[in-house]
Structures are given as C-alpha cells and as structure tokens.
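Example A, followed by Example B.
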Amino acid sequence: DTAALSRGDAAEEGDTEPATPGEAFLVGVGRHFTGMAVGHGLLLLGALLVVGGTVRGLSTRYPLPTESLLTALRERLKANQLPLPEQLEVMLPWAWAMVAMALHRARRGSSGAGDRGVRWMLAMQNDDGGWAAFDRTEHRQWMEYVPFADHNAMQDPSCPDITGRVLECLSWHGLRCGDAAVDRAIRYIQSHQLPQGCFFGRWGVNYIYGTWQAVIGPIRCGEPREAEWIRRAGAWMKSVQKPDGSFGESADTYEDPSLMGTGPSTASQTAWGAMVLQEIYGSDDPDLARAIAWLARTQLTPEQAADPAANPDGDPAGSWCETEFTGTGFPKVFYLRYHLYRLYFPLMALGRYARAHGAA
C-alpha cells in the first residue's frame, strides 16, 4: 500500500501517532519493509531503520516496526546456524555489523542472536586488523592489475570505513580499547589516514563518508577524542564545511582527489559531517549547530513536497530532496543513490543532537 507507506499510517489500534512528518515517514517505511526483510540488502535496510529509530526513541513508542524487524533478524540468524567455514561464505560483515547493533539497541541490552553475530564478526577480522565488506582475506594489490579484473576490484580487502563500522557495533556489545581485536583494528584505521586528516570512502562518497565511518567506532571503543589523529580528522571535516553549515562531496573526487570534500550539499553527507563533529567536539560545538540547523531548514515542508520542482522524487513531507549519488558501488565505475540515505542518516544526526541536549 504505497499510499499508506507515504503517509506513515496503518498504525495498530492504540498506537501513538508519529509526532512529526519525518517520524511518520520512517515508521511507515519500517512497517512496509520489516515483513520483507529476508535478504542481506533488506536486513541492512531494516537494521538502519531500527538504529535511526532508537536514536529518536521510536522503538518505545511504535512497537510494531521494531518487533517485526527483530523477528525477521532473529529468524535470518537462526537460519545461518552453520559451521564457521559455511558462515564465512554466506554472511557479510558490513550487513551484520548493523544487524547486531540494531538487535542490541532495540533490546537495550544483550541478545543471543546479536552476540552470535559479534562472535562471527570477530572471526572475520583480517590479519591486517581491518574488516572487509564480504570476505576474510589478505590484500593482494597485484590482482587489481589483471586485465580482466572486474571493475578494478577482483578482491575485497580491508577498508577503514567497514572497520570503523564494525568497531561501533563492537562498542555496543562491550568491547573496548585493550581488547586485542579492537586495538588491532584501531591501528589499521590509523595507518590509512591520509595526510589531510581524512579517510578514503570505499562504500560511500567519499572522504566525508570515509571519515565519518573511520573515527566514530574507535571513539566509541574508548579512543580519546583528544588523540592527535582524531583531532586531525575533525579539523579536516571542519575545513570542508560550507558557510551555510552543510556538507557535500561529488563522486568526481574518486577521479580527482584534489576535489575532496567539495560538491553539492546533501542531507546524507551533512548528517555524516554532523555526527563526526558531535563525536569529536561535543554537542555544543558551534559548527555542529550550523550543520543541524541546515538539516532542519531544508527538511521538506508539505508545500515543498507537493512541488515537483522542489521534490522530484515525490517524497512526503519530512524527508529531504537529494538527487546526488552518495553511495559507492565501485570507485570510478559506478555509484548508487540509496533513496533512504536522505532519511535515516539525517534522523540519526538530529536524534543524537536532540538526545545530547535533553530532548525527549
């Protein structure tokens, strides 16, 4: 029912109605997709919806999306009760990091399925200390020069963005600096910091995405915010923030790194930048406030949502207009426009900011 999805209705009798257009849209999407979450892609989508929703407290007010999603996640994990070699073939670290984090946060504590996912992810750590998106492997650069290499990506080596995402998940499950796996992962991330202070984004555009993923996980695990390498990352992020408070970066930066941090402003990239600023500098940082203000100012009003020129995708009020490609398939080959990036990442950033300032 696309009409119900757009309105965010179909509430169970007795449910509290969403308080804002953005919440209504998120809850509607959650109800629509959680019953379908049977593949890796939909599991990741559902997990991101739960993570975004728990930041804003939606899981306590709208039980249906969270409960049906958790049922789907648990059933999928149970279906993969295989010996470790087979698990390594059928499960993906990039997805299960978000799934295990979602299970923990929605349940406000440990869950058997989430704990099994964490044990599996620890087994997937590469020898260099990092994690890759799909495989446990060793980086062999020479393979990328084979003439028939698929999209210049014949292998799946560790990358800082996935490694940082896994660390954020591990932090929710109690792992901290001092744990061997965490320390090795942080050393891996540090070794891939660029001279400018930022990090390459393998799976999202580009250095804004890579820096967001690379620094938050280590901080959540206990890496000091005052660490020199963390401060350099924060300084770079501030250096590319626009006068209006937003962030934007084009996929052209993969072809020309001198363009790093520049491009049309987007809601998803502004959210990534805002979350970095809050994690490093705290919730009272004035540059963070500028990013949050931009997100609040550019959220679609009912009038804008009804205007095809302002809203070419036809999103309901409460979303954001984002026509740029901020997801990366293969650098220099193809990029992706995930239609919910413009919703759940701003929701995460706004929720973290609101929670830090005592908002309900």
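Example B, a separate protein, is given below in the same form.
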Amino acid sequence: MRKKTFAPPTPRSKRALALALSAALLAAGTAGAVTLSGYDLYVKDDTAKGGAALRSDTAITRTDIDGLSSNVVHTDKSPYEAKGGAIYSDASVSLTRSGKTLTVKSNQAQGKGSWRDARGGAIFAGGSVTLNAGSVTLQENKATTDSDYLVEAFGGAIYSSGSVNVTADGALTVKGNGADGKETGGGAIYARNDISLTGSSVTAQGNFTDGENNSNGASSYGGALNSGSGAAKLTATGEVLVTGNSVRKMTSWASGGAISAYKGITLEGGSVTVR
C-alpha cells in the first residue's frame, strides 16, 4: 500500500493557488453560465490588488457570467486598499449575457483603519465598465470604511476610472447599494467619466452615500450615481424611476441626493419620476 504525505500549504503556495484559480476563471469558456459567489480576499501585500473572484492586469471580457454574489475584498494593512469585491482589473471590465439575466448582489469592499480606502463593492476597473444583458440588477452592494480619519468609499457596486455603460433589453434595476466612509461618492456607481444606464425600464432606488463630518472636511456626492468629470444619462423606452436615494449624515460638502455629475444629468423615458 502506497502512502503520500503532503506538507501544509505555505502562505506563498496559498497565494499561488488563489492566482491560479483566478486565471482559470478568466480562461473559462462560454459553454455554460457561471455565478461567482462567496469568494473572500484579504489584501495584505502586492500579490493581490483586489477582486476576490477575478483579477487581472489586463482587460476582463466575459460572456458566461450571470451572477456575482456575496464576494468580499477587505484590508487593514497599510498602504493597501480594498478594490473590487468580486472583480478587479487594471484595464476594462466587460460582462455580456445576451438575452439572459445578470445579477450583481451583496458584494463588498471593506477598508479598515486610517487610509484604507474602499472602491467598487462588486467591480473595480482602471478603465471602463460595460454590462450588457437581457436584464440587469445591481443590488445591496457596499463599499465601506470604518476609520475616524479621512478615508474614501466610492462606488458601492461599481468603480471605474473611465466610463460606465449598463444596458438591458428589459429592466435595469439599481437598488439598495451604498458607499459608507468619511468621503464618499456614488452609492451604486462611481465613474471618473460618463455614466449611461439604458433599459426598457430604469430604476434607481434606495441607494445611499454615508459621509460623516470631521475636521478634515469630508464630502459626499451622488447617493446613487456619481460622475467625477463626466455626465450621467438614464434612458428607458418605458419608465425612468429615481426614488428614495440619499446622502446621509452631516457632511462638510454634499451634492446630489440621487445623482451628481460634473457635466450634467439627462433622464429620458416614456415617463420620468424623481422623488
């Protein structure tokens, strides 16, 4: 009888295994639908920048992902940040599910301690983010920090250093996402450039930024959407509904309980309701 004994995995081998898993997921084909759920990443060194389920230095383009749920990236180590609870790319991110449902729910980016920022509760991209499906839901994703000092939480669901374009053949729902920190922007979506949401109906409901006042002059922008230097546009053949979004708590500066966009806001639909 043969017996093999294996030594416990070292921290280095654990990191290698995690990177290999991420690479395998990146290389997955389009034969069947994939839901990425329950991944957890603790950022403590340069081996992983973010993205508990998928991470890449180059563009991520997938046509087989129909869900991102309950993934978490977190850190309490200097000088690192929590970026992309589910997906991280130094370049662009594109997820397409033609005629199908794409659900991004309950993902988190958590920064703990001074200068531990959180960006993109579900998705972080150094470039643009494009989501395209039969229906799209972004729900209850969070970017959070807990320090009393000036830290940033931007993009409860999506953070993009470029633009964000979300398109659904049917309903597009952005609901209950939040960014919680001393300086916050985009409870659901933050983009440095333009934000575009398009569907048969577009709903932005119950999203929030939560920024507390402090001696360093905190600020909070866009309870649902925040475009830092671009425009925001919501377009539907049916109803555009923007309701119950908020900038919470006392802040030194606050702008846009629902939407803040440097170059303006456009809402177009068969009906438009803002309340």
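On Example B: The helical segments are 11-26.
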